[in-house]
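[agent] plan:
  1. take the single chain provided in the ticket
  2. run structure prediction with default settings
  3. attach structure tokens to the ticket
  4. add a short note for the reviewer (M.T.)
[agent] executing step 1
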Amino acid sequence: MTRSTTGPAPADPSRRAALLAMKLKALVRDHLGHDLPAPPAEPANSFGRGAALTADGTAWVLLDEQPERSLGAALAWASRQPALTDVAIIAESATGVLARRAALFGTPITVWVAVERLLVPAVTDPYPARAEVDPRHEVWRTVITEAGAEPAQEHGVLAGEIRGLEICRVVTDAYTDETRLEVGVGAHDRESFMMLHGNRPTAEALAGVVDAVVGHRRVDAPLHPLNRLGAERFLRWQVIQAPERVGAAWLRVADPPVPRPNLKDPVPCVAVGESASGEPMVVVCSVGIDLDLVPFAVDARQMHAPDALLVLVVPERDASPVTRRLMAMVARPVGLVVWA
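[agent] step 2 finished; step 3 output follows
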């Protein structure tokens, strides 16, 4: 079992950064067996999600915050350092996913688990087994459709969406083992909705939410929380409606390589299908500059169809140079479509 060696986070971020830098230097020094030169003091050498340094031609990066979503940030930092031959990633959690993604880059990347003062090679996590929807949940699919929502299945969970925004979910009661359709956007909203409208028939309640939401899930809709939430999934919905714009003949929603932790935080989303020439295709959509888009996307391709064409789709404002740099580091080609 891996234990943290950093202790509680200091209130002062600069002190936290200094402690992480000291920790990384000690880990690398012990691993290499010799002292390290003093790192440059320029701000450009800092790494906001942990600590980073270079030694003997290797970029060493210690991931502290959200390591499972920080491989891209580490590679972005490494890509700015001169004369490097490889990258070494150190983390205390999520190292199996990091190792799985690291193997898909042409740049040599090693992932290490920090156990006290020792660095242990990470063991690659397998992909999650395909989960089917509980047959008892399937009876709610018709209710979702008749209310005007779109049934959506992800890692065995059946939900209802309006243009990418989840507005209901089928659950099994932990105490009674009964299935029910909970209406609302996210767990807290579903709970509040049930408390306020518990006596209202489910189909009627869902239809009311559909009517309230659909007007906000339009390209020309005024800015509103209901179109800011799940913006990347709204983009995927648009791509699926017009697959020819990304070079596809058809596309459908597909599972991400790791389950979404919640509805609030933006995470890239996946579609699979065929290109116009009949080749398998994986499309990954993202809104906002997400440094982990490329590692997520290559992981999704490897999970669904390792030999498929991979295309990233982002709004024009989010087609950043760092995304293109990371694309160039991948072992197999990655395409980019700017959605306007």
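[agent] step 4 note for reviewer: Residues 13-121 form one domain.
[agent] ticket updated
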